[in-house]
Amino acid sequence: SAGSSSGISTNTSGSRSSLPTFSNIGVGLKANVKATLGGSQTMITGGSPRRTLDQANLQLWTGAGWRNDKASSGQSDDHTKFTSATGMGQQEQSGTSAGNPDSLKQDKISKSGDSLTTQDGNAMEQQEATNYTNLPPNLTPTADWPNALSFTNKNNAQRAQLFLRGLLGSIPVLVNKSGQDDNSKFKAEDQKWSYTDLQSDQTKLNLPAYGEVNGLLNPALVETYFGNTRASGSGSNTTSSPGIGFKIPEQSGTNTTSKAVLITPGLAWTPQDVGNLVVSGTTVSFQLGGWLVTFTDFVKPRAGYLGLQLSGLDASDSDQRELIWAPRPWAAFRGSWVNRLGRVESVWDLKGVWADQAQLAAQAATSSATTATGATLPEHPNALAYQISYTDKDSYKASTQGSGQNNSLYLHLIKPKKVESTTQLDQGLKNLLDPNQVRTKLRQ
């Protein structure tokens, strides 16, 4: 491909063996596939934050998404609605809105027959549950891994989507804590899953994160995780309006080395969001919305991310940065393909982004009610039309028995009874992600 300084590219290999999966390859923006973790786009912690986006962009589709909130809203099992993972948007703000990081609790768990019951309490033993009260019902349990793989067909978008839902909803990924503003914040030794440390101080390390957020961490999300919640000069952070998916701990005294913990949101991905599922050896790559996700090694996880490599648009390019900050980046994504060198390239049509910008500008010019929070992000166009994972409604009930009790398995992520070291975690992943099995299933 030949590109200009603005990032616009024209494909010249359309007649070769690696054909693109869409027709408008000569129009749009070539995305430089570039890792975004640990680079210049990460937020400074413990000091003055860099320029951040306005409040409207705290609901970026690439970071927050929409989730099923029927259980926590007390609606019937037949009622489904989606709210933003920041707890803002289609429902009134409240302390129990979907995605509220403060809903995180440590609960004692007891088992009676096939039912699991949790009750609010202090963390005492390792046989405890991490309770996210607002997790969506379509989170796929780890036990569904073989089933998700068996339903995968590389020529069938819906079956590929089943695989992706199982893949991203099942693998525990350790989300890195924020530390000093240098490369040390993303070193492998910072990737810990120590129950003892978690029990004593949740700000010391990463919570294990489950779900689609693993494929969505991008410069916009990292850059804005403080949002407007950081109080300058007061020695403390407030969480009244939390940034995207992050829990910002309170600070006190002279302690200014803030730690942020990523809380997993849930998304309603559709086949239209997923493209170019490529299997090569022990590597699986696919395009998820505008972001390339690559599982680089199924056997030996790298850099503490359990084999997950995150890459996306180049935030240093002005046109691509415009896409990153766009309220609806999916409006510009036109697909991806593998060129003859084996590299994944993406095509972006900026007309959709420009149309959104023009519409928002027109609304701001004519509306006296426009506030600093900006316009509410529209729903994902297919959010209500297509749900992948099916959960029997009797298995997902918000029936409350007494104070804080709930029988639903899908509201609780159960910790392994014993996790002592990353070596043991790696060994468990080897058993779960046998590359021969994965490759066989993917090629069926």
Automatic annotation (TrEMBL):
Origin: domain of life: Bacteria
Classification via Pfam families: Adhesin_P1_C
Composition bias, Low complexity: 1-18, 231-245
Ranges of biased composition (kind: Polar residues): 82-100, 112-125
Ranges of residues in domain Adhesin P1 C-terminal: 392-444
Residue ranges of the region described as Disordered: 1-23, 66-125, 231-252
Stated family: Belongs to the adhesin P1 family.
Protein name, entry field: Adhesin P1
Organism listed in the record: Mycoplasmoides pneumoniae
Lineage per the UniProt record: Bacteria, Bacillati, Mycoplasmatota, Mycoplasmoidales, Mycoplasmoidaceae
